[in-house]
Design brief:
With 187 residues, the chain is an all-alpha fold. The protein has seven helices and no strands. It has one domain. The radius of gyration is 23 Å and the shape is elongated. 18% of the residues are buried.
């Protein structure tokens, strides 16, 4: 019944036999919150989905999200970039278990890469995306000191630069630019 409509007569609403409701609890700032209110728990079947940790699945998500197709040579280069992302993902989550990267983080990183790759080049887009999406906020509300966050950023940059050196033909200019940034992070 719709009592909120007011008036002397109540209108009865009947759901279609095929009607169903599906709800999710997945807010961006939730950070793994798993509890539902008693009212929601009473009305829904609760299904908890664990985080995605399979590297092949993460690679598939990243490749699916990148929209450009410029031929087989580009696709090979793109696969090397995505593999560097996934290697970083695995390394970072083992390195710093208190701050785990999520699928949402990966999608944001890939989104930044997708938007900026053409203007920055793939290597720069990968590195800038890592900082803007993942690393710049390390000392904000995480309990990590500014100094420790700077050291962690430096380790992350070194890891990514190493992956790019072995995976792609990154120019010395890319490495030079980010080595200057590396020095600034230690100050």
């Amino acid at each position: 019944s719709l009592a909120e409509k007011g008036g002397p007569e109540l209108e009865k609403v009947v759901a279609h036999p095929n009607f169903f409701v599906l709800a999710t609890m997945n807010p961006g700032g939730d950070y793994g919150k798993k509890e539902l209110s008693p009212a929601l728990r009473n009305r829904f079947t609760e299904i908890w989905v664990p985080p995605v940790i399979d590297l092949d699945e993460l690679q598939g998500i990243a490749l699916e999200r990148i929209s450009k197709f410029k031929g087989p040579t580009y696709q090979e280069r793109l696969l090397l970039i995505v593999n560097a992302m996934i290697s970083f993902w695995e390394w970072f989550n083992k390195l710093h278990p208190g701050r785990m990267l999520t699928v949402r983080d990966l999608i944001s990183w890939v989104g930044f890469f997708d938007i900026t790759e053409e203007s920055l080049g793939p290597e720069h887009a990968l590195l800038h995306g890592a900082f803007l999406v993942l690393l710049d906020g390390l000392s904000l509300g995480t309990g990590i000191s500014k100094r420790d966050a700077g050291e962690l950023r430096e380790r992350c940059l070194s890891f990514l630069l190493q992956k790019l050196r072995t995976n792609t033909d990154v120019t010395l200019e890319v490495i030079r630019r980010f080595n200057v940034l590396k020095l600034l992070l230690l100050v």
